[in-house]
Amino acid sequence: MIRESLYFSFAGRKSTEFPIVNVSLGSGMFEESLTSSKSIVETSVAGNNVPYFQRIKREPITFSLRFAFTEPWNDEMIDEVIRWLDVDYYEPLFFSSNIDRIYYGMIVDSIEQIHNGLSEGYVNLNVRCNGAYKYSPEITSPIYEIDNEDLIEIVNTGHLPTSPLIFIQKIGDGSLTIENLSSTDEVFFIKDLKDNEQLTIDCESRRIETNLENVNHYDDFNDNYIELSVGYNEYRIIGDCRIKFEYQFLYK
């Protein structure tokens, strides 16, 4: 996917803005990792030849890139490329062969320039991602108008469960319940909401925000945040409100 792509986008800018293309040197088949590397964390105990398994540790995704200049460069062009690539935080990165797989990466180590002395050549760089997974583009559901009770469906096409952002505008005072009919043990419940109150529920960071001053709902909440399982998810929402979901699918 990476090696076969001529173009890529990093930090909101496309490589087509510059006279560069993504290249691979040599001939033959491309070699790429499908997943991040992982290791087994285990504990050995004296007298037992079989170690105790504890967990799997997945390493952040890393890979190298090489892009070639399609025309002779000058100092101004090189300065602009450095400003674009040499950032100090993770930025979205995706490739032209599959724009629906997004890495959040940062250039690490030094950026190496290989050239022939005539302002022609290519650049090598190494990328380290913020974790072991790739992401889909951000997905925003429709705004669901819930009148007392309704059903909604969300299909997670990723490889792993994912935690959404939930935006709620309460209609009338009362409580709100979200039951996962695909998983009978998952019920989201929050009470004492006010008419026209607006909530943002960050299920990954486990954070609740409201537009009302001097109000928090942590004591009004059953502490059961929503997780979108892989595959089909059907939810029953009980309580008058307007509600929408934002999420990204995760891929190994």
Structure description:
The protein has 252 residues and is mainly beta. The protein has two domains: 8-134, Elongation Factor Tu (Ef-tu), domain 3 (Beta Barrel); 139-251, Sandwich (Jelly Rolls). 4% of the residues lie in helices and 48% in strands. The chain contains one helix and 21 strands. The chain has one helix spanning 75-85; strands at residues 8-10, 13-14, 20-22, 38-43, 52-58, 62-69, 91-95, 98-115, 121-129, 134-135, 139-140, 144-146, 149-156, 165-170, 174-180, 187-193, 198-202, 207-210, 231-238, 241-247, 250-251. The two termini are 14 Å apart. The mean pLDDT is 89. This is Phage tail protein. It comes from Rossellomorea marisflavi.
Topology:
Layout: E1 8-10, E2 13-14, E3 20-22, E4 38-43, E5 52-58, E6 62-69, H1 75-85, E7 91-95, E8 98-115, E9 121-129, E10 134-135, E11 139-140, E12 144-146, E13 149-156, E14 165-170, E15 174-180, E16 187-193, E17 198-202, E18 207-210, E19 231-238, E20 241-247, E21 250-251
Antiparallel strand pairs: 1-2, 1-7, 3-6, 4-5, 6-9, 7-8, 8-9, 10-21, 11-20, 12-20, 13-19, 14-17, 14-20, 15-16, 15-19, 17-18
Pfam family, one: DUF6558_C
Domain Phage tail-like C-terminal: 148-247
Protein name: Phage tail protein
